[in-house]
Write a structure and sequence with these properties.
The chain is of the alpha+beta class. The chain has helices at 19-26, 74-92, 98-112, 141-154, 169-178, 214-221, 254-263, 267-292, and strands at 6-10, 40-45, 55-57, 60-71, 117-128, 133-137, 161-162, 186-196, 203-207, 224-233, 237-242, 247-252. The chain contains 8 helices and 12 strands. Strands 1, 2, 3, 4, 5, 6 and 7 form a 7-stranded antiparallel β-sheet that branches. Strands 9-8-10-11-12 form a 5-stranded antiparallel β-sheet.
């Protein structure tokens, strides 16, 4: 259980939700299979295939949103609709109009949906009551918002907001590069995106490229600002920080995963240790990163 791309949210200061309460609430809205004409179904699923929807370890809580979606490509709908249109036109002797074509496609969709193949996916979230954070493991904001929307329907008293820091990531990353000086505990890696602030939005990207020297400073002097930057924290976690304070391509370096692999004697123990190690290390890293960005803007809590 290792998160890869995360969105960071701040819990309300008076949040007192417990794992038992969360389990009770999640159990009221489990994932149900799509019914005949449903294109999608959402609900909470177990993280480990057991009856627990809220998994707890060291005061940290893991839960997951399940989504079942029917696969009905537009190309399939169009093919069946085209065949039906051809039959109607042959019988009536004139072309089907735009309104009638739309109705035919809707009818075809309703007929095909009950036979469509359904697939499931899960989005994981980590509730950290100790540090007041909700972390969602999602590569896109759409999937993060999808989980938040379902969580809002499940819990009436858990408003969350994206974490905001006193320094914007763009200003901080640009400053670190200009001064060739990463914040304490961090090192700058070999990935960077610089973007001009003017109308041109000219963009320069570096991948697996040394970021020291005059070339980077020249881009910054010309008005470009850092919008993505690869960083490593304490030689234990590497990641890419974006302009929106999203963390992408999280990688827990070998030493952390080796701790789990050498101590676990079963799959269940491995899951427990992975989650405990991940949350312990990531919580510290997020605290240090927040401090490196000037601290949290408290008026957003």
């Amino acid at each position: 259980m290792w998160f890869k791309n995360i969105f960071i949210y701040r819990l309300p200061t008076d949040c007192s939700i417990t794992a038992a309460t969360l389990q009770e609430k999640l159990a009221l809205k489990p994932l149900q299979p799509c019914s005949g004409l449903d294109k999608q179904s959402r609900g909470w699923v177990s993280c480990r295939g057991d009856d627990r929807l809220a998994h707890v370890a060291n005061q940290q809580i893991l839960f997951a949103l399940g989504v079942e979606q029917k696969l009905l490509p537009a190309s399939i709908i169009n093919r069946f609709a085209k065949e039906r249109v051809a039959d109607i036109e042959a019988q009536q002797g004139y072309k089907v109009g735009r309104k009638a074509l739309k109705e035919i496609k809707e009818a075809v969709t309703e007929e095909l949906l009950p036979r469509a193949f359904a697939v499931q996916r899960a989005t994981y979230a980590w509730l950290d009551p100790v540090n007041g954070r909700l972390i969602i493991d999602a590569a896109s904001s759409a999937k993060a918002e999808e989980l938040l929307e379902q969580l809002g329907k499940t819990l009436d008293d858990l408003p969350v907001k994206l974490l905001h820091t006193k320094l914007s990531p763009v200003a901080a990353m640009t400053d670190w590069l200009a001064g060739d000086n990463a914040p304490s505990g961090f090192t700058i890696d070999r990935e960077l995106e610089l973007r001009a602030t003017g109308e041109s939005k000219a963009t320069v990207r570096y991948a697996n490229h040394a970021l020291e020297g005059n070339e980077i400073r020249a881009h910054i002097a010309a008005g470009k600002r850092a919008t993505r930057l690869g960083l490593t924290w304490n030689d234990r976690i590497s990641f890419v920080l974006t302009e929106h304070l999203q963390i992408k391509r999280l990688e827990f370096l070998g030493i952390i995963k080796e701790e789990s692999a050498t101590q676990a004697e079963s799959a269940d123990e491995m899951f427990e240790l992975d989650f405990t190690l991940m949350t312990g290390e990531l919580a510290k890293m997020l605290t240090d990163l927040t401090e490196a960005l000037g601290g949290e803007m408290l008026n957003n809590r």
